[in-house]
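Submission checklist for the structure archive. All mandatory fields must be present; incomplete records are returned to the submitter.

[x] Identifier: Large ribosomal subunit protein bL28
[x] Organism: Bosea robiniae
[x] Residue count: 95
[x] Sequence attached
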Amino acid sequence: MARRCELTGKATQTGHLVSHSNRKTKTVFRPNLVNVTLQSDALGRSVRLRISANALRSVEHRGGLDAFLLKAAAGDLSVGALTLKRDLEKKLTAN
């Protein structure tokens, strides 16, 4: 399973820990991923996603999963989230 947020695309980064004496130690900075179940109001079902804690705050700020997906860029979304976005757009255009 990739260490990547399904909604924002946030992934691991590499870098250095720099000491006071300016020694550099390689390290990996990983995103804070959590498994959540979010409710889609338009589709009427719940969706399990592995997203970062920052993305969870963004979803709540935008007013739910549906509003977040409609504004999200397709390049950042995972395959599962992209199909969910397509289903959501089809459902909204049908109504």
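[x] Structure attached
Curator remark: The mean pLDDT is 94. The longest strand covers residues 33-40.
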